[in-house]
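Milestone 3.1: sequence recovery, worked example.
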């Protein structure tokens, strides 16, 4: 590993794009709105919030359909296309308008045009342009993914690294001696189209975060993120709202970064490490040289199929750690920064969807696991209603997991080798396959438990029915032998026959109820009676226990 003294001078990033993909778990809808799905509830809120449903950015007018949309579409395999975009919109007249739609629903807000970041106290703020702010919701999955894409130009590389390290954090991990939040930006401000500040961060309010965790045993997020997500509100907050969310993982959000550097920059191994792991490595701290991720950085996280070193090629490098995907290339190459046909267009469309799907898989699996844990924690085996609720929750989770497997779970997204390699690398670093196996085994164990419990109850019912059948057989044989005419009840008056019938019914009902209540003991007695090794005294003691002795 080269020493920091060999790091090149601070170069300029001519074009910088960054996309945050933040998965959040959605709480089940209240009973009053249980028939609605989360995306329908957001859409039905109307003009009370700035989010509006968009049709996957594809336009209905073929004349406005852009080539970047076409390139994005044909990059994926057909079953992935149906997931991302749905199917044909020209169905038969009178058909369901929702038929053929994608199970992915995208909402966008356009009232925020800029983001002003003060990275450290006393520094000059950095303004980033907002490309778009989207919410991705999915049928059958109680999760939402926030996507925020920002861009800027002519930024020093050190500033870009500092942005990637500090920006995508939901709450401070601690506080410095002066009271500023630790590891997050000093101040983040959302700007409207007129430059007015719409919301700002509040990470310096330490008591707010301490009190929230103390009271709810759950972290509180910064105000600028909370304001961005409304009408979705934090699950444990006092803020009213039916659409509530909770955090799934750590407060550091997954991030994609696109860096176009000047051609004269010669990055060494230390520079590449700082760029590729910018969201993990503190800019002011030394690189942990003995860390296995540092030692094996190039082999584990870097893709160099486009790093040709030739002036005619794109000369770009992909760095994927799972939680981040970084593309670095030559700003002088027109193809690399082309937003319509070049690498930038692929980064913002194809590679973004690859990153989104990989984190959708992980987030959905973590939600499934959390639902199982919640169901087990709420189970009280001594409460019949709790047991019935537990069974319903487990079966519903199992059904949803089956739909997730057949609708959202992919191993192959594209036939293009570089895209498939990126998806595979991202999934492997996120450990999605292992997590899927764990969740599948947990659900399977729960399903086996429910099946065995049902079989146990059925076996108990069969035992009781068997005892009643044996007792009924004795009565049937006896009455059949005597011809059912031991006492001539038919010669009496109507009142006498009615009283005799009522008395007999009461006696028979009492005998049946007694047999049912003692069916387990009667079953033990019948088993003891059939045991040739048991003495007569032992069989008598078993029968005495049936009578309650």
């Amino acid at each position: 590993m080269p020493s920091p003294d060999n790091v090149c001078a601070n170069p300029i990033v001519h074009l910088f794009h960054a996309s945050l993909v933040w998965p959040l778990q959605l709480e089940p809808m209240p009973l009053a709105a249980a028939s609605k799905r989360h995306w329908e509830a957001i859409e039905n809120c109307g003009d009370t919030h700035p989010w509006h449903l968009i049709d996957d950015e594809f336009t209905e007018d073929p004349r406005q359909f852009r080539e970047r949309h076409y390139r994005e579409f044909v990059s994926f395999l057909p079953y992935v296309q149906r997931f991302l975009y749905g199917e044909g919109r020209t169905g038969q007249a009178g058909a369901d308008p929702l038929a053929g739609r994608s199970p992915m629903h995208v909402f966008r807000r356009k009232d925020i045009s800029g983001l002003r970041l003060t990275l450290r106290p006393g520094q000059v703020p950095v303004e980033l342009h907002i490309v778009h702010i989207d919410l991705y919701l999915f049928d059958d999955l109680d999760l939402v993914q926030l996507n925020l894409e920002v861009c800027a130009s002519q930024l020093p590389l050190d500033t870009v690294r500092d942005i990637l390290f500090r920006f995508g954090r939901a709450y401070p991990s601690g506080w410095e001696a002066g009271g500023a939040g630790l590891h997050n930006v000093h101040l983040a401000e959302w700007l409207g189209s007129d430059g007015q500040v719409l919301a700002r961060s509040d990470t310096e309010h330490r008591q707010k975060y301490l009190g929230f965790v103390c009271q709810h045993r759950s972290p509180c997020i910064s105000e600028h993120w909370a304001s961005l997500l409304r009408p979705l509100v934090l699950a444990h907050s006092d803020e009213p709202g039916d659409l509530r969310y909770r955090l799934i993982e750590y407060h550091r959000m997954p991030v994609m970064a696109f860096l176009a550097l000047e051609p004269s920059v010669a990055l060494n191994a230390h520079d590449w490490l700082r760029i590729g792991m910018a969201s993990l490595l503190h800019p002011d701290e030394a690189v942990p040289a003995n860390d296995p991720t540092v030692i094996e950085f190039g082999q584990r996280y870097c893709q160099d199929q486009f790093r040709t070193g030739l002036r005619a090629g794109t000369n770009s490098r992909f760095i994927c750690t799972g939680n981040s995907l970084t593309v670095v290339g030559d700003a002088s190459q027109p193809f690399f920064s082309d937003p319509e046909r070049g690498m930038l267009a692929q980064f913002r469309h194809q590679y973004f969807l690859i990153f989104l799907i990989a984190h959708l898989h992980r987030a959905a699996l973590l939600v499934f696991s959390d639902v199982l844990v919640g169901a087990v924690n709420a189970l009280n085996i001594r409460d019949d209603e709790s047991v019935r609720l537990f069974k319903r929750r487990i079966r519903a989770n199992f059904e949803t997991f089956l739909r997730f497997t057949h609708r959202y779970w992919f191993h192959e997204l594209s036939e293009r080798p570089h895209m498939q390699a990126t998806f595979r690398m991202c999934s492997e670093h996120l450990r999605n396959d292992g997590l899927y196996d764990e969740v599948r085994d947990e659900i399977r164990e729960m399903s086996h438990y429910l099946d065995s419990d049902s079989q146990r109850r059925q076996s108990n019912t069969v035992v009781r029915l068997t005892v009643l059948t044996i007792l009924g057989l004795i009565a049937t044989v006896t009455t059949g032998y005597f011809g059912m005419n031991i006492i001539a009840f038919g010669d009496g008056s109507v009142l006498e026959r009615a009283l005799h019938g009522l008395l007999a019914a009461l006696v028979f009902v009492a005998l049946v109820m007694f047999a049912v209540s003692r069916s387990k003991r009667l079953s033990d007695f019948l088993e003891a009676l059939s045991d040739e090794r048991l003495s007569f005294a032992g069989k008598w003691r078993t029968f005495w226990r049936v009578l309650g002795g």
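Residues 432-481 form the longest helix (50 residues). DSSP finds 17 helices and 15 strands in the chain.
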